[in-house]
Design a protein that fits this description.
Strand 2, helix 2 and strand 3 form a beta-alpha-beta unit. The longest helix is centred in the first third of the chain and has 21 residues. The chain has 11 helices and 13 strands. By secondary structure, the protein is of the alpha/beta class. It is globular and about 55 Å long. Helix 1 runs parallel beside helix 2, helix 5 runs parallel beside helix 6 and helix 9 crosses helix 11. The chain has a 7-stranded parallel β-sheet with strand order 3-2-1-4-5-6-11, sandwiched between helices. Strands 7-10 form a two-stranded parallel ribbon. The protein has a two-stranded parallel ribbon with strand order 8-13. The mean pLDDT is about 100. The structure holds nicotinamide-adenine-dinucleotide and UDP-4-deoxy-4-formamido-beta-L-arabinopyranose.
Length: about 350
Amino acid sequence: MNKGTILVTGGTGYIGSHTTVELQAAGYSVVIIDNLSNSNIDVLDGIERISGIRPAFVQADCTDMGALKQLFKEYPGIKGIINFAASKAVGESMEKPVLYYRNNLNTLMNLLDCMTEFNVKGIVFSSSCTVYGEPDENPVTEAAPIKKATSPYGNTKQISEEIITDVINAGAPFKSVILRYFNPVGAHPTAEIGELPNGVPQNLIPYITQTAIGIRKELSVFGNDYPTPDGSCIRDFINVVDLAKAHVKAMDRMLENEGSDKIEIYNLGTGNGVSVLELINTFEEATGVKVPYKIVGRRPGDIEKVWGNPSHANTVLGWKADTPLADTMRSAWAWQCRLRERGIM
Ligand code: NAD
Ligand code: WQD
């Protein structure tokens, strides 16, 4: 059964590609728009090898309203949007704030304008646990206060949530689901798609896998003097395929459930806090591969500990992140090995 067409912005990116696979498996048709600023056209081959279906693809920039309108005319009847397209490097956003505000906010505002014009029923938005800053309590629920953003990137997520809320409250004829991701990690179990970091990875897992394969000499663990059981920071590492599946649940609910609210917010995490040192151990045990590391000073701006309470998503969406962390680590490693086989890195 075809459940209708979904526009996936940023669909050749890390989370967007995994979500496209799950949307197709659930019976949706997918149109991807991506400007390929942080992804590669070959991702479409990976998606097709997994799904047997090649999603429609438009190479264009979501900040280009003309290109967006053209897309909606070319693909009439788009029912829903998932907006992944954004610039996401926290450090870069400190150096180039305008780029971040322009790209992330103009993309969202253009999409919202098109939704009314082209009668799109709902939009799922990729937000982040970064909106909670350093939470007062863990696990953090959706009711926790939003803390002042510590980077322009984080601020774009807060402002985006406010824009969506204002637009819906002003009576826009569509719904929205805001998903706050914790730390998405791992790759598809087929190793056909995964994360493709640009340059030296800033995030922990790609740094671990690149060190394990010998691209980096050693991993720097940023601090072992935090007031946590082993002194390293604590995060909620969520498997990217589990995360992708939550988008399908959110889309189904938004489009099919008359009783769902016009705007809903969900934490997407596992509910478990795992420290950086525990994660390294899990990786080593799961793969049998050593990760040379040294302890260095704290990274400025790091949150000490944050993990999510996903009960709301568990209950209302009927979704749970249940992939064991060891399996997720094996998938990240298999993906790194695949990139090596293909001579990519
Ligand atoms: P990604 O960089 O892999 O994917 C984003 C995709 O959007 C890329 O393919 C990029 O080329 C594209 N893109 C960027 N700007 C565009 C534009 N103006 N027009 C068209 N395409 C554009 O990132 P990801 O990790 O898959 O993240 C997806 C979303 O989830 C982002 O909004 C990100 O902020 C959010 N998020 C990510 C994480 C994480 O840790 N990965 C955590 C929380 C939230
Ligand atoms: C995780 C832990 C580091 C690299 C970022 C964004 C956040 C969200 C997710 C999008 C931290 C430690 C890391 C390394 C290390 N993204 N680390 N050595 O900081 O939780 O969140 O990605 O919305 O907004 O800020 O993720 O993977 O960078 O770090 O010790 O080489 O690993 O200190 O404790 P973070 P991360």
